[in-house]
## 1
Amino acid sequence: MSEIVDQINHVHREVGSREVPDGEARTVLLRRTYDAAIEDVWDACTDPERISRWFLPVSGDLKLGGHYQLTGNAGGEILRCEPPRLLAVSWLFGENPGFSEVEVRLTAEGEERTVFELEHVAVVPPEMWDQFGPGAVGVGWDGALLGLALHLTGEGAPADPEAWAASDEAREFMTRSSERWGAAYQVSGAPADVAAATTRATTEFYVPAR
């Protein structure tokens, strides 16, 4: 197993649900520890220039109450910003996106270790959840945590992201991510056959047959 694929093993995943004003929301939570000071991790998650190096280019009025836009992806409002420990944003994509929020929580574990938690809470169309389960967003967030890990260690993102996404290494990473989200879904109470079906659908979406 490559070191990049092994990054899958550093993440704890949870699946749940929560009541929000728009109804029942689904939740996915990822937690891992980075060997970096909390101030460094916070800066990597909030500085636009650094965000573009490990995630996506971002623009907007990047302050509390302001709005942001990730190139080709989500945008929304900055709801809470409490440096260096808490960042919460609405996470909206497409027309009529409904309720969707992401919260990042950081906890220092000594001077050079930081526990990173990301929780995505969203009201998901039932047909989408029934087909893909938590893996629909979970695989993408696993990729983001991988990008942050490479950035914090100075390795940086692959020189050609599109080429890497089609590589055997990336396909193995996404396959294992999908499997881990299926396992987390089953732990949350989903029947084994349902978790298996959503895992297959998620894997086929992210890792289509060649």
## 2
Amino acid sequence: MTSAIDPPLPAVTRLIATDLDGTLLRDDKTLSDRTIAALAAAEEAGIEVFFVTGRPARWMDVVSAHVHGHGMAICANGAAVADLHADGRLVEVRPLERAAALDVVRILRDAAPSTSFAVELATGIHYEPSYPPFHLDPGATVAVAEKLLHEERPGVGAPVLKVLAHHPELTPDDFLALAREAAGGLASVTRSSPTALLEISGPGVSKAGTLAACCAERGIAPAEVVAFGDMPNDVEMLSWAGASFAMGNAHPAAVAAATGVTLTNNEDGVAVVIERILAER
């Protein structure tokens, strides 16, 4: 593990993959002028920048004004690829099958009573009456998860990108460990919130898997990628990239997975490393 002062950088950096919340964005959900300039300079130097986030495509307005080059973003922890040049249109979806989602809901209701659920579809979010009011859509359907996931006929309805599960009493890491043990064979379970809020995707779906596929399409090797993240949902991506940096504010699991640690999100930790990459070219 090293600091951003002396980062282990690839011989050639062709792509930068960065998480948003807690990583590229400051705590007030904005980008600093320094970060905006660093992103633009990287693209001008021929380095592609991928935003890789747990956010759905409809919440990408925080960075849509700063998209260069390809304009693609990996959203919903790898469950979707969105074209930010086309108002977040989804160009690829890796869904969670509804039958599997229903099994996960049933298992977690039994394993952790008081769990409430939301269902993130390709068309928007829907949630249970007891689900906490985080970023609720006033146009959403409010019903029990079993009803939200029901299909009158197989294959009918928008793809499920992920199921969100919240527990009011368990600690975030305890809830994650419990859910992975109980339902990890049916789905990918991770978290990015400071609360006990889990994000449940299709089996094998992760930021790393979708990023790897996008890089392969472009002929970019893992050794040519520099990644940034701060939470458990970034661990696979940080482990996959040739060089990776956990933020100074990162969860211990992210720190353990990364090859280096940079400054916090409020201290422009991503920009610090990008500037170093450009200076060493």
## 3
Amino acid sequence: MSDPLRPRASLRTAVVWDVLKDALERRVKAAGRDALDVLDTGGGTGNFAVPVARLGHRVTVVDPSPNALFALERRAAEAGVADRIRAVQGDAHGLFDVVERGGYDTVLCHGVLEYVDDPAEGIRNAVDALRPAGTLSLLAAGLGGAVLARALAGHFTEAHQALTDPAGRWGEGDPVPRRFTAEQLTGLVSATGLQVGAVHGVRVFADLVPGVLVDTEPGAMDALLKLEAAAAEQPAFHAVATQLHVLAERD
């Protein structure tokens, strides 16, 4: 995925970025500091880490892939923020083998819960990395979006399989090991003691609209971005979003 500040990529990232940026601004005011310590678990090549560092924050990215971390370091250097980004090889299970417990103002846990053996443990580790007052940004694959996408593609058996499978998978060829409902994600977060502040549906329409329409129709990109932003906060659309974003805080 590209930088969330680039127009084409913003179809996939704009909602999360806007929510995250506002949350960081609130945390800066609450902490009384210009720069925050941010942990990005599973941050890969820096889709969010680099833009966060551009805001002046210090970002530690933990990812199991050395290739992704190499790309992150190159990208950070090109963006002029290499001094504010630290790349560490590791995973959510052994998080505190590589980072400090309770050392971060904000933790990003994006695209992680789908792949860990124990989502509850993954959430607990992310929360345990927070300082006494901190913010968690959680992004995970949504069940309803996968069901809708398979059905609209004419794969009705796979859509039914995803709907009834405990992990939300549509078959053996499904590249995503696990999907969630909004209720499941908020339940996992609430169980850690954090207070859920907001839930947003991400990519409600973007993955269903033909790319050629967005690229060739004048004004289509901006109109679709506005539609995504408007639908993201509506609970009715959480059930059909490709991804779900949960913002939670420890007061």
